[in-house]
Amino acid sequence: MEFKWMLLCLSLLAVSAGVARAEDEIDADEEMIVSEDQGLVETEGDESTIEDLEPSDADTYLLFTKPVFEEKASIELPAGRLSEFLVGFTNKGSNDLVLETLDASLRYPMDFNFHIQNFTTVLLEKTIPPGSQATLGYAFIPADAFAGRPFGLSINLAYRDYEGKQMISKLYNDTVNIIEVEEGLDGETLFLYVLMAAACVLLLVGGQQFLYSVGKKRVGGGLPSRTRANLETGTKTSKQIDMDWVPKNVLNHLNKQKAQSPKQKRVKKTD
Amino acid sequence: MYSLKSFVIVALICTSLTVSSQNADSQQARLLVSKQVLNKLLVQDSDILVKYTIYNVGSVPATNVVLQDSGFPDEAFATVKGNLNIRFNRIPSGANVTHAVVIKPLTYGRFNFTAAVVQYKSSEGAEEPQFAISSEPGEGYIISYAEYDKKFSPHLLDWFVFAIMTLPAVVGPFMLWWVSKSKYELILKQKREKVSKD
């Protein structure tokens, strides 16, 4: 009986040891992957190796002023429109801190090492004495093409202490939604509507003309007698001609010429 | 037994004290001050609108807030409206205050718009004022009025001169036509009068 128990215990131990070894292997794999990542980061050479791991004398605060949000969690930025935020910086220590740069960028949400859009890196070079505060303003426009998709927004503030040791404070490093702005009326659609209205008017005019001509043909067949009476026949009878507008001297001249028509002249000559 | 009880009480008092002191530490007003130049075009001798916005993002009201902007020297700028030094008695927590000043640049050229300075009491009991500087609008180029006028004036005088120059070409043919027209009209009139007499 005791022997049986011993066996059971032994087998349990063996199993547990095996599991532990397997876990170790997985751990090792994970470590390998992690180290690969680090290698990638190093080869890319951005973000630098400096991180504010140790507690620093700086205290930062991020506030989006355009658009305005109730809480930090659900940030939605309009694509193609200006977004603004303010950064509050307090020097809590006993030595000067020098603000160096402030930059923001949109990253691929699955992999924050992958930059989608970089925004201006503002060179500050501002010395903040101990116990003092500073506010920094920053404005950027997410590209129009990124509307309707989530992106990682990364805002970094770089500063150095009196020893010249650089530190980077990650003010924001989370996924934000870039939203499409629904515009009421832009120029393009306005012109489209104007063009459509013009086409409608043209169609109506064309239709009216067509109907008119068809109606005329059907009613008339030929021309009715009344219209025929009013037809323009030219100046058949000279009585109808209004000669009022012609100056008198010209009329006299004309009459003279009429009196001496070429036929009469010829007759005279023959005489 | 008695000693244990007293120890517990002392311990409780101590912890409450530390907690309250921590609260006092975190219960401070915190101001973010933004300074913005709202004009897109900075022109000599025309107004520039500068907007200051103070956000209190702390948990208690800020008192005795004094905003001073000495970034506009008298020899280069004239204040048209508003004060460059202003005092707000109290800015509640979560609130913001906007202050606008209209200034006029007297000269042209590059100008660096620097930060304004703000002093405030971060809590009721604070003895020393908290110093803060606002955001900087940065460097801007103030263009001279002549340059601005060249680009954006309605050119009224130029159009007037152009009109005068085109006058002969329009008036000449018109006069010729008018003379002949009035001549024929006169004849017509005379004839009508003759007819009416008859």
Automatic annotation (TrEMBL), chain A:
The keyword NAD does not apply. GO terms for cellular component: endoplasmic reticulum membrane. It is found in: Endoplasmic reticulum membrane. The chain crosses the membrane at residues 190-212. Keywords: Endoplasmic reticulum, Membrane, Signal, Transmembrane, Transmembrane helix. InterPro entries: TRAP_alpha. Residues 1-22 form the signal peptide. Pfam families: TRAP_alpha (PF03896). It is a single-pass type I membrane protein. Its main location: endoplasmic reticulum. The keyword Hydrolase does not apply. Belongs to the TRAP-alpha family. Heterotetramer of TRAP-alpha, TRAP-beta, TRAP-delta and TRAP-gamma. Interacts with palmitoylated calnexin (CALX), the interaction is required for efficient folding of glycosylated proteins. TRAP proteins are part of a complex whose function is to bind calcium to the ER membrane and thereby regulate the retention of ER resident proteins. May be involved in the recycling of the translocation apparatus after completion of the translocation process or may function as a membrane-bound chaperone facilitating folding of translocated proteins. This is Translocon-associated protein subunit alpha. It comes from Macrosiphum euphorbiae (potato aphid).
From TrEMBL, chain B:
Coiled coil: none annotated. InterPro entries: TRAP_beta. The chain crosses the membrane at residues 159-179. Residues 1-21 form the signal peptide. One of its GO terms (cellular component) is endoplasmic reticulum membrane. It holds the Pfam family TRAP_beta. It is found in: Endoplasmic reticulum membrane. It is a single-pass type I membrane protein. Keywords: Endoplasmic reticulum, Glycoprotein, Membrane, Signal, Transmembrane, Transmembrane helix. TRAP proteins are part of a complex whose function is to bind calcium to the ER membrane and thereby regulate the retention of ER resident proteins. Heterotetramer of TRAP-alpha, TRAP-beta, TRAP-delta and TRAP-gamma. Belongs to the TRAP-beta family. This is Translocon-associated protein subunit beta.
